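Researcher: Here's the sequence for the chain we discussed earlier.
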Amino acid sequence: MKDLSIKKLYYSISEVSKLTGIEQYILRYWETEFEQLKPQKNRAGNRIYTNKDIQLILYIKNLLRERKYTIDGAKKILENYTAEKLVEEQNPAVNTESTKPKTEEINPGSKEKIALKKDLDEIKNLLEFILAKL
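Model: Thanks. This is the structure I predict for it:
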């Protein structure tokens, strides 16, 4: 298995733009729209993004561009977002296929969680692809 460790702790906005395929001005705009996306700034005032920020950006990109959510719709999905939860869902300890509830057992909200899990798996695959390119 490949070592998927990320080589850097912090990335500049230009590096994040190249990694994610999202223009810098859009990244700055998303900071104003999504309260969860708050990169730190260094002493010079430049944005410094963490790996968790990049995961969130890729998730937002998926919601907006792949799943065609509006900004407001994506905000609603991200209300309960935590970076740790995203990482945990991308690397489940148990096989989710064997623990999936049957259709009749699904309670309200579970269908959204299942769809979200599929999206997170797509993001994981995208991150693995990006990391392989580093």
